[in-house]
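in:
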């Protein structure tokens, strides 16, 4: 275990963010974890903190969806809270602000860029942007679970009891062991074109034109070459090329790439050197903003 010095910021009545430095910088990266993540649960964060260019620092932000809160949350709630934090940072005089999302945190970053029209930020970084829907179906197939029947039941509960109705425990036990799970969030994550469905490889062109086609700030995508949540039988390179084809000129960063041998969080089981590749690409990207 390790300890880290820095400053804890309270940006609304009950939410905080940790700044991993005691010396304020002009430019900041806001790190947003995935489902179940909190402070320092993503293993590459400490090394990234130490390797940022001069005058850049990293804040990890806690939102209501952090840790186990995601099961009853939404991307809309997440980006509303992120906007509060961006306003807080602008109030501190920060000059450049970049969102760095990991896993479902990439959906927050993307959703912020679309719904908030990139309000107050200068760029986004998407690390391990993987479809939760496809990951759920991959897991269901492996364990012999009929996910379509689960989706049908969740839809019925949504329609009869409301979006905030909590699903039976077997739903949350299956989906990343959420402490509780609303009908809305289940459907957002597991049905085609749900609110969380930004990255599924079977999305229609019309959907991609309303997502990747709407980005207005420089975007760096760092895909993991050995991502355990990625669907089988799909070529990563083709997926990235398709996404890029929908972006406007100057949006897709030339530093975007697939990190060879990297697992989802570039942690245990990754090919050696993956974190160093991430750091190099991130630093090259932010140095040109």
């Amino acid at each position: 275990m390790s300890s880290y010095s820095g400053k804890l910021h309270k940006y609304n009545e009950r939410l905080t963010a940790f700044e991993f430095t005691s010396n304020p910088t002009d430019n900041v990266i806001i790190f947003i974890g995935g489902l179940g993540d909190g402070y320092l649960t993503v293993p590459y964060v400490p090394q990234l903190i130490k390797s940022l260019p001069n005058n850049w620092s990293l804040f990890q932000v806690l939102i209501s969806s952090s840790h186990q809160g995601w099961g009853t949350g939404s991307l809309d709630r997440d980006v509303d809270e992120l906007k509060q934090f961006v306003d807080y940072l602008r109030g501190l005089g920060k000059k450049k602000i970049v969102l760095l999302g990991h896993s479902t945190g990439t959906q927050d970053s993307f959703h912020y860029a679309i719904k908030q029209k990139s309000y107050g930020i200068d760029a986004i970084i998407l690390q391990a942007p993987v479809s939760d829907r496809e990951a759920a179906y991959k897991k269901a197939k492996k364990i012999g679970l009929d996910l379509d029947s689960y989706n049908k039941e969740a839809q019925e509960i949504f329609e009869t009891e409301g979006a905030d109705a909590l699903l039976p425990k077997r739903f949350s036990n299956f989906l990343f062991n959420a402490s509780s799970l609303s009908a809305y969030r289940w459907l957002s994550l597991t049905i085609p074109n749900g609110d969380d469905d930004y990255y599924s490889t079977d999305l229609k062109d019309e959907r991609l034109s309303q997502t990747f086609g709407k980005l207005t700030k420089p975007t760096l995508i760092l895909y993991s070459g050995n991502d355990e949540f990625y669907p089988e039988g799909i070529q990563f390179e083709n997926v990235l090329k398709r996404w890029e084809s929908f972006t406007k000129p100057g949006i897709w960063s030339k530093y975007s790439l697939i990190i060879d041998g990297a697992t989802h969080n570039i942690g245990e089981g990754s090919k050696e050197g993956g974190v160093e590749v991430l750091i190099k690409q991130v630093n090259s990207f932010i140095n040109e903003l």
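note: The chain has a mean pLDDT of 97.
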